[in-house]
Amino acid sequence: MHLDARNRVPELTAVLSLASLALVFGAVLGAVPRGALPRAPDAVVAAIPHVNAAVSAAAVVTILAGVVFARRRQFRKHRAAMLVSAALFAVFLVLYLYKVALEGPAEFPGPDAVYRRVYLPLLAIHILLAVVCIPLLYYVLLLATTRPVSALVDTAHARVGRVAASLWIVSFVLGNAVYALLYVVY
After folding, report:
1. Which residues contact 49 (CB under 8 A, 6 or more apart)?
2. What residue ranges are annotated as transmembrane (predicted)?
3. Is 0.85 surpassed by the pTM of this model?
4. Cα–Cα distance between 15 and 180 in angstroms, integer?
5. Which pLDDT value is given to residue 101?
6. DSSP code of residue 157
7. Distance CA 5, CA 145 (A)
8. Which of 92, 81, 105 is nearest to 53 (CA)?
9. 93, 51 in Cβ contact below 8 A?
10. Would you say residue 3 has pLDDT above 70?
11. Mean pLDDT to the nearest integer, 168-174
């Protein structure tokens, strides 16, 4: 069977999105047996949230750079910045899933009032945006990698990409706010 990715972008987006979300929710909900993964040294596992905060900050910079390049019609630079952003996201996700699969989600160490009024709303919005971003990101990435730049004007790449980039940035920033509450403030 021949798969023509160019003509199957919506279907591929759906399959990749479902697979990705299944991995994330499977790890968070403990579907991956903790003994199934090799255990890195405790110092490495403990460093993952801090590394991920840096990765998230770098991703915000590369996404913003990609947006600027697109507005300036510097599409080679735009593509490079967005591919770096996608790679940073992949690194973040692999590290996050590894840590969560080993230890479960981090417990909030601060006061209950901050937990209910600040932490949970931030976390909920971050998670919602991350879930919404997944299919949008796959869609624009698949469009961009299956077509020449000149053909993208005939697609929803720019329109969906603007929404995806905006939500992606907010999700990364809120993720770092959650990180700060978990590992810096408390």
Report:
1. 99, 106, 179, 182, 183
2. 12-32, 44-68, 80-98, 118-142, 163-185
3. yes
4. 33
5. 92
6. H
7. 9
8. 92
9. no
10. no
11. 97
pLDDT 10s digits, 103-152: 989 999 999 999 999 999 999 999 999 999 999 999 999 999 999 999 99
Could you give the CA distance from residue 55 to residue 170 in angstroms, rounded to a whole number? 14
**Tokens found for residue 80:** 């490079």
Note the pLDDT of residue 50: 98
Tokens of 86: 């996608």
Taking alpha carbons only, the member of 91, 52, 82 closest to residue 64 is 82
According to the model, what pLDDT value does residue 1 have? 46
CA distance 110 to 112: 7
The one-letter amino acid at 97 = L
Q: Which domains does the chain have, with CATH numbers?
A: 19-26+40-185 (1.20.120)
Residue 65 neighbours by CB under 8 Å, 6+ apart: 77, 81
61-111 pLDDT per residue, tens: 999 999 999 999 999 999 999 999 999 999 999 999 999 999 989 999 999
Distances (CA, A) of 100 to 14, 56, 83: 24, 17, 25
- Whole-angstrom distance, CA of residue 33 vs CA of residue 130: 24
- Give the containing element (helix H, strand E) for 85: helix 75-103
Which amino acid does the sequence have at 87?
A
Q: Which two tokens stand for residue 98?
A: 């590894």
Q: Is 81 helix (H, G, I), strand (E, B) or coil?
A: helix
